[in-house]
Amino acid sequence: MKQIILLFACLFALQGLAKADDDRAITVDQLPQKAQEFIQKYFPKNEISLAKMEKDFWEKKYEVVFVNGEKAEFLKDGSWEKVDCKYYSTVPTGIVPQAIKDYVSKHYPEAKILKIERDSKTYEVKLNNQLELEFNKAFQLIDIDN
């Protein structure tokens, strides 16, 4: 009996692993409303190449790739997590918190923000001069990578 229960537990675990990395293309209308509004506000002229939903064990995320190569990633509620504009343009200024904009303009006046990413504890920005700046939630600089 223990072997049968163990067998079923293993099969259940394998089924979960098979579904853990489930990515699928979706339409823009299937994005959370907050993500749709973000795209309309900050990328109104960008044509969308791909929108997809990524499901892991515990979370669901969304990614939008624009024709020009720029990307935006969103959490399940539609709030932005990452905006990557590569070397083609810069992150829209309305996305970047004012304290980070002030720090970058004061210390790197010629630099442009190409990428911004946030999580529950930090903000990370990448500049066109190859520096990556990491800020805590109080917008204090905590790390610089080059």
Core attributes:
alpha+beta; 146 residues; 3 helices; nine-stranded antiparallel β-sheet
Low-pLDDT windows of residues? 5-11, 16-20
Share in β-strands: 25-35%
Question: So how many helices?
Answer: 3
Largest sheet: 9 strands, antiparallel
Topology as a string of helices (H) and strands (E): HEHEEEEHEEEE
CA-CA gap between termini: 58 Å
Gross morphology is: globular
Q: Over the alpha carbons, how many angstroms does the gyration radius reach?
A: 19 Å
Arithmetic mean pLDDT: 88
> How are strands sequenced across the largest beta sheet?
1-2-3-4-5-6-7-8-9
Structural class: alpha+beta
Strands, total number: 9
Q: Assign a percent range to the helix content.
A: 25-40%
What does this structure look like?
- By secondary structure, the chain is an alpha+beta fold.
- It is built from 3 helices and 9 strands.
- The longest helix has 19 residues, at 2-20.
- The radius of gyration is 19 Å and the shape is globular.
What are the SSEs and their pairings?
Layout (H helix, E strand, L loop, with lengths): L1 H19 L1 E4 L7 H10 L5 E8 L4 E7 L4 E5 L4 E5 L13 H10 L5 E6 L3 E6 L4 E5 L4 E5 L1
Antiparallel strand pairs: 1-2, 2-3, 3-4, 4-5, 5-6, 6-7, 7-8, 8-9
Short description:
With 146 residues, the chain is an alpha+beta fold. It has helices spanning 2-20, 33-42, 98-107, and strands at 22-25, 48-55, 60-66, 71-75, 80-84, 113-118, 122-127, 132-136, 141-145. It is globular and about 40 Å long.
